[in-house]
Structure formats: structure tokens, C-alpha cells
């Protein structure tokens, strides 16, 4: 599928944005009666982030990996303005994030589509909210639907689409608003391996043309390497950035790049950074059990 620059013309002039996190901390106060055991002591507070510093330049594709429960989703929520940090600041374009921003789009693991709207109407929705006229929003929605290979599925409802198709609609909906920042929280985790591979390639193909800033959380080391300009490795909870690894693989990337020696070297490097943190998080399972009880 070929695209011209005008096909992907932004709705507004792009700003020189970047994401800056400074000493971002987050501690949750548990509900009355709930407690966790931390370092052998009972506590009604759970520290999740303990001073995250991170700079993400405009147009970068950053993936975030870290042990389960290390606060990756909480970090995205803070960048999205959905959760307030307990300390430190998150800023986009030098402006502190205080609430959800219309220029930031979020794609979740579960597709979060409106079941009563068709695929096309789902993609149209955020444009409708922004006051884009009916004809213009329909055209733009159709364009993004086609971009994700869903021509002919315009009038299908989410329940009539496979998981992979639903996630294509969700990403198309996010990108149709021309977001300055796209946050993706394990968007392909619920998909089968083949669909996941295809969607990674589709996402890259489209991102390479629009170059919006992406922060993508994943549990898959291969996915993290394949997509990223740089990989942020988080420590076990309470999390900080352990290491940032620049991925110097050529673009555009083909799925076969995973068989290369260079790719394998990144696999080893990322796992080296993660291994100790995963072990620490596993020792923390007692906490999870106590917390979930
Ligand atoms: N609203 C909340 N109240 C209390 N604790 C919370 C809240 N939201 C998240 N947490 C806790 O914060 C910790 C980090 O959660 P988060 O979902 O960000 O981890 P994660 O790294 O995304 O995990 P996973 O990789 O398993 O998805 C977890 O222990 C979770 O239980």
C-alpha cells in the first residue's frame, strides 16, 4: 500500500514535542483494611515508582520493558495525565502534564472499542469530539481504516471482527487524531503470535511515515527490539530506569531482521539488564499475594 505525504497530512502543525520525566515517584495508598508486607513490615502504602528520569525526543519510538508489576502501566498513566505522580514531574513539550491531553492517544491491551459503533464510526469518534465536520472525519476515518488493511470492514461492529482486526481499529482510531504522543500498553499481548508479528510490521510501516512519538510497553524482548529506537529497562518495583539501550538496527525493518546476529546481540543485552530485576520481582510475589488477598 503506498501513501503520499498529503494522505497523512496532520490536522494541525506539529509542535517540537518531547517527553521529560524528572524524578517521577508514585506511591499508592491502599484501601482501609488492606496491607502489604514490605521488607518484612506491614504497610498500607505501596511504592511503585521511586524516581524515574527519562527524556524522549520528538518522533522517537521507545519501548519499555520491566518485570511484571514494576509500574510500567502506572508510568504510561502518568504521561497520559490519568494518574498524578506523588512527586517529580512529567512534561510534554516543556508543559507539565496535569490532565489528559487531546494530543496524547492511548492504546490498551483490550481494544476498548465502542461495541455499538461500527469500525468506521469508532475511528470517527475522537474526530467527532474534536468538532471535525462529518464529511472530513468520515474521509479521514476511512483512510486510516484502509491503511490498516480493513477495507470492506467499514460497517462491521467490533463483535464481528477478530481480535487482530479490533486492535487495528483501535490503533487507527488513535492515529486518526494525529496525536503528538502515542502511548501503547501491551497492545498486542492478547493476540496470537502470527497476528502479533503482522501488526508489529504494520505499525512500523505506518509509524515510519508519520513519526509521532511512541511509548510502547511490552513483555516481549523481541517486540521491544524490533520496534524501538531505544529500549527503556525498568528495575523491579519500586521502579527506576535501570538502563536505556539504543537500538541501532536499520529501518525500514523486516521481520527477518530477527534472525540476524545484530538482533540476537540485542536480545542478550536486554535480557542481561532484565534478568536480575525479574528475579527481584519474583521474590516480591509474597507481596502480590498479600495485596491481592
Ligand atoms: N490504583 C492502584 N492502587 C493501588 N495499587 C496500584 C494501583 N494501580 C497499580 N497499582 C500497583 O502498582 C504496581 C504496578 O502496577 P503496573 O500495572 O503499573 O505494573 P506493570 O509493570 O504494568 O505490570 P504488568 O507488566 O504485569 O502489566 C502493582 O503492584 C499494582 O498492583
Automatic annotation (TrEMBL):
UniProt domain ABC transporter: residue ranges: 19-261
SUPFAM superfamilies reported in the protein's UniProt record: P-loop containing nucleoside triphosphate hydrolases (SSF52540)
SMART domains membership: AAA
Coiled coil start-end: none
Cross-referenced PROSITE patterns: ABC_TRANSPORTER_1, ABC_TRANSPORTER_2
MF term (GO), any: ATP binding
Domain of life from the UniProt record: Bacteria
Nucleotide-binding as UniProt keyword: yes
Transmembrane stretches, start-end: none
Keywords from the UniProt entry: ATP-binding, Nucleotide-binding, Transport
The family this protein is said to belong to: Belongs to the ABC transporter superfamily.
Protein name: NitT/TauT family transport system ATP-binding protein
